[in-house]
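Forum: Protein Structure Q&A
Topic: Joint prediction for protein chains with partners

I've read a bunch of threads here and the consensus seems to be that you should model interacting components together rather than docking separate models afterwards. I'd like to see that in practice. Below is the full input, 797 residues plus whatever partners are listed. Could one of the regulars post the assembled result?
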Amino acid sequence: MVLPEWLAEPGLNHFLVVSAILFSLGLLAVISRRNIIMILMGIELILNSANLNIVAFSRYGMLDLDGHMIALFVIIIAAAEAAVALAIVLNIYNRFGSVDVEHITELKE
Amino acid sequence: MGLENLILLSLITLFLPLAGFVLLIFFGKRMPREGDWLATATVTAAFLASLVIMFAKLATPETVTAGWNWATFGGIPGVGEVTVELGILIDNLSAIMLVVVTLISMLVHFFSMGYLEGDVRYSRYFAYLGLFTFSMLGIVLTHNLLMMYIFWELVGVSSYLLIGHWYEKKSASNAAIKAFVVNRVGDAGMFIGIMIIFVHFSTFSFDAIFSAVSAGNLPFESQAWLTAAGVLIFCGAIGKSAQFPLHVWLPDAMEGPTPVSALIHAATMVAAGVFLVARLFPLFTADALLVIAYIGALTALIAATIAITQYDIKKVLAWSTISQLGYMILALGVGAYAAGFMHLVTHAAFKAGLFLGSGAVIYAMHAALHKQHDHQTDAQDVRNMGGLRSRMPLTYWTFLIFTLAISGIPLTSGFLSKDEILAGTLAFSTLNGHYLLPLIAFAVAGMTAFYMFRLLILTFHGKPADEERLTLVREVPGVMGIPLVILAALSVFIFYSFNPFGASSGWLFQALERPASVVPEALAPATWPVLYEAISRVHTLVMILSIVIAVGGLAFAWMVYEKRSVSADKMASAMGWLYHGSRKKWYFDEMYEAVFVNGTLGLTRISNWFDMNIVDGIVNGAGSVTRSVSKISGWIDNTFVDGLVNFLANFTGAIGMRLRKIQTGSIQNYLVFAVFGFLIITILILAI
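Posted by a regular:
Agreed with the consensus. Here's the joint model:
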């Protein structure tokens, strides 16, 4: 089977497209999901799309190992951030009895 | 006696009654007998001092003057330095007047001790008598117009206080106000006259004014102004001496205590006007003197016609006073200076006597009515008297002498002076044809004799109105009787001239030489140089005529009221409107009521209307204009200024309301905005 030319040799664009799709899905999750946990998962998706981008740029661009380093940093910070975010979610749940962002509109007042 | 001592003595005379006034007004109530002895003592001392002054002055032809600078005003624009002087002037005129004033005042003091015994304001009465005497002495002694005006007003004030002595009576307080206000009318004229003279000459002193005028210096360089000044100053005399048309206050002034009437009518107050004319005699022009003569004649006639029909014993005397004052003014007007002033002196004695005599009658009547427990009958109405002769012999005989004197019967003082006045008037008319003046003068002489004997007969003769009352009438006590005797003695010719048929040879007439006129020759009375000759031509004729007329009037009164051979009622009805006019005092009071009182009230109403409608209207109009302007500006403020501010606030608020809609509080919304905002910005950046 002959692969179409844009599939035959994966290049930077492919990664960028995948990353963009991943980012869009993450953003969609952040914007449209009501459950905070789902929003956090969307954020993780966005972070990972960014990691994918950075790693792709270190393979095809001029970032070299710096890209990998940045990606590792991002993964570590994401882990820490997830821990902090889950703690906040727990507090929110304690306070409002819900993890539905629709109910949490304190900023409006 | 040295002349300086005379000045000192005159000052003592002047201030003694004032001292009495001051002491009595403050301490009178606490003194024994409420201090009447003190007032009487001061006036008696003043009388003795004036006697000394008179004898000392009459011995020397010199005039004694002394002046002190009171106030000096420097650098008045157009005038320079003006000095106002205080001063004393003693000439024969003031020396004689001093004795008249203090003598009558002294006798009135003595009489009042009896008449007002037990009065509520006994000490105050004597204090005011002292003030009155002081004021009159001031007029007599002063040597300038300003001081004369001040004392003139003081006389007005003290007469007001004394006429209104029994101010609980409405009629008395009204009479006091009337006397004061009517006098003010004359005083206003006098003040204008004084100011005309002062503005031009910058001095008040008589001597300075006379010498300036005789040097040809006329007020405002005009002869008319000189006449006007004279007539205006005479206005003061019209008021004080109760001349027509300001005579209305004097009969009402009878509301005061009777001794006060005696004082007012004889020596103070009414004599002041005559004295003023005599004092300023050289200043009057021929025209002014003619006015004075006619005013005097008119007054004499009007008052005499009214006196005939009055029934109140004091009112008859009041009208007779006005009539006699008219004589004096007439005499001065025609140039019979000495005769006019002599009549003032003789009249002072017999009129004071008449009033004190009537006071005695009223006193006795009051006492009798009191014993009868009769409080309705008028003690002053002659119709309630009659036959008093038998019960009050002393009062009757003295009253008879006074009546003979005022009627001008020979051997009395009144005959001397009245005869001279009539002679002067007739002589005046033979020289320039004013025949109305002697005609009036003789008619008034007849009427005077008639009404005075009418009064005497109705009071003392005839049938008593009430027999029982007559038996209760008692003769007055000695303190009231003695003044009557003294005054009766002074009504005899011998004190004024040794010749009972010619005053001109008497000392009084000699002492009162007519001062030379100072006005320019063209204005001076042309009759003066020849008047005395003319008088001596007509004198015998006048004497016979005046005796015939006086005796005729007397006899007629005797026939009508004593013999009753002519009915008084028939005569009255035959006279018709003349009788009614006279009875109603020729309606002067009603006329003044209609014209001046109602005119003033009308004017008040008009000015009140003006005030209420025009002035208040303007004020209210200004108020409402301000109100509407402020309303408009308030509306502008509320609508535009506030509107703008409110609009801004509302606008901001509305925008805020709209903008807060996007502030949902939902984190995801914000995120959407952020994303789309980012996208738009990116697109915009890329598009550029």
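The first helix of chain B runs from residue 3 to 27.
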